[in-house]
Amino acid sequence: MEKKLLIYETAKAIFSEKGFKDTSIQAITKAAGIAVGTFYLYYSSKEQLFMEIFKDENTKLKRSFLETLDREQSPRTIIRDMLRVNQQGIQSNPILREWYMSEDFRKIELAYREEHAIDSLDFLYDTFLTLVQRWQAEGKMRSDIDSRVIMKVFEAIINIDTH
Hints:
By secondary structure, the chain is mainly alpha-helical. It has nine helices and no strands.
């Protein structure tokens, strides 16, 4: 197995079992059977590695929702289902659960976003922006409110729901 993948998979298992705070780089490298220096060839910190794992797990959850999304359902049904699936996904995944239930991760996320110049998971935002615009055109949602403002409201609802 490639060393970076070995580090990633080992860390994911340990983070899932022990949590972020109780996982050290030394524990990861010992379990992976590699030197600590090898870890730093691939990751600059435990925070960077955790953020990468979180991002992948979060993306997996969002993609699975999009795969089952029936775009013909009413806005209310889709939003309700999205919140339900999101909450179930967070509760069942120890990486997501720890991330969303702890304020400690805000600074890690901000640093990661600055380092990688990302604002959001664009595929999810883009999908829902298109849906909101369609609903507005079909008269299922108010058209006098900018669709990007509606998306910010959805984002706020999700943040409230997950925190």
